[in-house]
Amino acid sequence: MASIELSSKEIHQLGMNHVGKHLEENGFEFLAVKSELGHSPQFVCLKNEKELFFVLVRTVTFPDNPDKYDAAWMQKMKKHAIDKKARLLYAGVGLADSIDMMTKPTKGKESFVNYKGLVEISLPSEK
After folding, report:
1. Are 88 and 78 in contact (CB under 8 A)?
2. For the purposes of burial, counting CB atoms within 10 Å of the CB of 69, is it exposed (0-12), middle (13-18) or buried (19 or more)?
3. Residues near 5 by beta carbon (within 8 Å), at least 6 away in sequence
4. What is the pLDDT of residue 32?
5. Mind listing the pLDDT tens digit for each residue in 15-56?
6. Structural domain containing residue 91
7. Is residue 121 part of a domain?
8. Residue 29, in any domain of the structure
9. What are phi and psi of 10, to 5 degrees?
């Protein structure tokens, strides 16, 4: 029986689940979750009951680099974070087949996850 590759939506969902667990384990409280492809930020969270965070999740498959993001997209998100007085975090998630890195993840099989954690995107300071 042939393996069926995960769809773009399923790949995105795996990344969202991975980052969501990480946020939860690190004391973030979810205010909103937008799991649909193309919606940003994917997570709007509070930490310590006062700090607002926007978390951007980008999930890619090998050989794409999860640490690289579109600069124009990030600039737009920076403006949004500044307007809402939020801190901006980026979470890049890379996925591959756990046995053959050159193969995209498939349904019903374990995936290798490349996730280095949350990266704070610096925002211009207020003058």
Report:
1. yes
2. middle
3. 104, 105, 106, 107
4. 92
5. 999 999 999 999 999 999 988 877 788 999 999 888 999 999
6. 8-112
7. no
8. yes
9. -65, -40
Six-digit token string for 79: 């403006």
Residues in CB range of 24: below 8 A, 6 or more apart: 30
Residue 118: inside a domain: no
- The answer to the question of residue 117 being in a domain is no
Extract the tokens encoding 42.
């994917």
Q: In the chain, how many domains are there?
A: 1
Mean pLDDT to the nearest integer, 58-62: 93
| Length of the chain as a residue count | 127
Q: In the predicted model, is pLDDT for residue 105 greater than 60?
A: yes
Dihedral of CA atoms 36, 27, 53, 85 in degrees, nearest 10, equals 150
Q: 127: pLDDT confidence band, cut at 50, 70 and 90?
A: very low
What's the whole-number average pLDDT of the chain?
Answer: 89
| CATH number of the domain encompassing residue 97 | 3.40.1350
CB-count exposure of residue 44 (10 Å: 0-12, 13-18, 19+)? middle
| pLDDT for res 39 | 77
